[in-house]
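>> received
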Amino acid sequence: MKKILSLLSFIFLASSLTGAPKKDIVDTAIEAGNFSTLVAAVQKADLVETLKGDGPFTVFAPTDEAFRKFWPETLKNLLKPENKDKLQLLLTYHVVSGKVKSKKAMKLDSAQPLSGGSLKLTVKSNALHVNHAKVVKADIKTSNGIIHVIDAVLVPNVSKKTASNVKCPSTQVRMMHKASAHALSSSN
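>> returned
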């Protein structure tokens, strides 16, 4: 019994010393305090389970300030229940499968988000940019991936055919929508 307790104590101590993050992407975003719009949108889109899943995921997370700069009427429309599929498209366009640290991302030209389509990755003045958004804080580690904080909301550039065949991991959310910036901004 004494050996088992010693072994368990060692395992607990070793895991706490490694500094492995204990919170997933969603809980990390909630705790940060500057992603309340993003978290609310993830909840409305029923993507919480996905982003709490095993992953790993890389999330390009727009801040509340980024959402304030996003088209206000478009955001209001996307949060309506009848536009859930469009909201899922918008949000999954910010998520890449796998852990992509900023150092690696800076060497890439593009990345494929879960929504389909493509994210353009560039380096300007030693800062990583995703499409038109600047990464303002990189490599926030979570238990199931990495968060890169961005200063703008990304607008999907996927074709209708690509979007309708995309499934989100773990929730198998089927994307059935018109996939263009015009479709996102139209109201129902």
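>> The chain is about 40% helix and 20% strand.
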